[in-house]
Design goal:
- By secondary structure, the chain is mainly alpha-helical.
- The protein has a domain of 31 residues.
- Helices cover 82% and strands 0% of the residues.
- Helix 1 crosses helix 3 and helix 2 runs antiparallel to helix 3.
- The model has no long low-confidence stretch (mean pLDDT 93).
């Protein structure tokens, strides 16, 4: 991404999710499962499908980053 506002939001939401994961182990996996379920439930014919799929891909990227960071932090604390 090259949009500072979008990048800042992505960074901030990643940090928030990681902090929530600390208090609620499994939260990130639950969020990933929820996004997968939402993607699977999308109607075949949906308006702006390309845009919706791009949103889902970006959501997975954020959750993957948050998960990797949380796992790394857990390794450091072990």
């Amino acid at each position: 991404m090259k949009n500072p506002k979008a990048d800042a939001c992505s960074y901030l939401i990643t940090m928030i999710i990681q902090r929530l994961e600390e208090d609620n182990q499994g939260l990130i996996n639950n969020l990933i499962e929820g996004v997968e379920a939402d993607r699977a439930a999308l109607p075949k014919r949906i308006q702006s499908r390309t845009h919706v799929e791009a949103i889902i891909r970006e959501t997975f990227k954020i959750l993957d980053r948050a998960k990797a960071g949380a796992e790394h932090k857990n390794e450091d604390n072990s």
